[in-house]
Design brief:
2 domains, globular, 366 residues, 13 strands, alpha/beta, 6-stranded parallel beta sheet, 13 helices, Rossmann fold
């Protein structure tokens, strides 16, 4: 049996095709939910089973901690480590699988590691291993979490040539697990989701060209950075759609910046199928997120990154991902060039692989 530990919606999105592949092969698995995000609606959306175990009460809003590191989140993480450890010692799986770079990920890695389980018989597996931004504070706390997860895992599934190289370089010092380049499950997730959205015909794209906006990173939610972001967004001339996260809305209101956003259609957060449908049909993207950079490469959409650093550095070499470092003039320049059709999309090979990553993972584990 396999135990899959998930805490956030993003982790569920990227583990979803793996779970589907296991079910297709009639391979039983345990779905363990840490409770970091509410996942009930997403499970129904993806038609996967509800969690077999929920280790803490789900939040009513989109996330439990808004990515903040404080006493509550540290206490939750400590308790979660021992809850996970107790459960997997009871279940005795063959593999413990966790994804990405959240607090749930690092808790799962530590809880299932040799340090806390000297006589363990399972292998713990980190999906999406090896991403590095080069700064522990950008993005925070994800950069710390992914490094912890890599250091405590037996099997590290790298998503690209660069991430494999990162891990093999660190292997001389801190990485002790087996490294295997496998690709990123996002290529499967997006294809499954987009095909489903087109088949159901539930969503309609706007008639005019539009930009899809996604801003939620904790390090950007201070007055100085948010003011810069709003000024950058003021350069958008075409229709703009912004599904707004709870934490972003809170700080925009706190700093009286919401009223300064003109010509932007603010919506509540939408389900992943709707988001991917809008992304696939957009002219370009503006974001500070992580996975959306990968999705931009899959659908070949120019993507403006309102961040100081990125751990998805492969995308910068494709000519359609632009790391602005929050430079206002540069950001406005790129927006203008995209909207004026001055940036041409060249052919490139997706660094995160082709369809079938989930099948490759199951084959590897068998």
């Amino acid at each position: 049996m396999i135990a899959i530990i998930i805490g956030t919606k993003a982790e569920l999105i990227k583990c979803m095709p793996l779970m589907m592949e296991l079910e297709k092969r009639k391979q039983n698995y345990w779905f363990i939910h840490t409770g970091q995000h509410p996942l009930g609606k997403a499970c129904k959306e993806f038609a996967i089973k509800d969690p077999d175990f929920i280790l803490s009460k789900e939040p009513k809003k989109t996330t439990k901690f808004w990515s903040k590191i404080n006493k509550n989140s540290l206490l939750w993480s400590l308790l979660m480590v021992f809850k996970i450890r107790k459960l997997i010692n009871k279940l005795k799986p063959k593999y413990v699988i966790y994804h990405g770079d959240t607090m749930s990920t690092s808790c799962a890695a530590v809880a299932s590691s040799k340090i806390l389980n000297l006589r363990k018989r399972w292998k713990n597996v980190h999906l999406e291993a090896g991403l590095r931004s080069g700064s522990l504070l950008e993005p925070f706390p994800e950069e710390i979490s992914r490094q912890i997860s890599d250091r405590f895992s037996d099997i590290l599934l790298a998503v690209s040539n660069l991430t494999e190289k990162n891990l093999k370089k660190e292997r001389r010092r801190v990485i002790f697990g087996k490294v295997k380049k496998i690709g990123n499950t996002i290529v499967d997730s997006t294809q499954i989701t987009y095909n489903k959205a087109k088949k159901e015909k539930k969503y309609k794209k706007p008639k005019l060209p539009y930009v899809l906006i996604n801003i939620h990173r904790h390090e950007n939610l201070n007055k100085k950075r948010l003011k810069a972001i709003i000024e950058i967004l003021g350069a958008v001339k075409i229709k703009a759609i912004w599904p707004l996260h709870d934490n972003t809305a809170y700080y925009l209101n706190k700093y009286n910046l919401m009223k300064k956003m003109k010509n932007i259609e603010i919506t509540p957060l939408i389900d992943y199928s709707n988001f991917i449908f809008l992304l696939a049909n957009s002219k370009y993207l503006i974001t500070d997120g992580g996975s959306i950079q990968e999705e931009s490469l899959i659908f070949k959409k120019p993507c403006i990154l309102l961040r100081k650093r990125t751990e998805r550095q492969e995308g910068l070499k494709t000519g359609i991902n632009f790391l602005t470092k929050l430079n206002i003039n540069y950001s406005k320049k790129i927006i203008n060039e995209i909207e004026s059709n001055k940036i041409k999309i060249q052919k490139f090979k997706n660094p995160y692989g082709k369809l079938g990553v989930s099948k490759k993972i199951v084959k590897l584990l068998k």
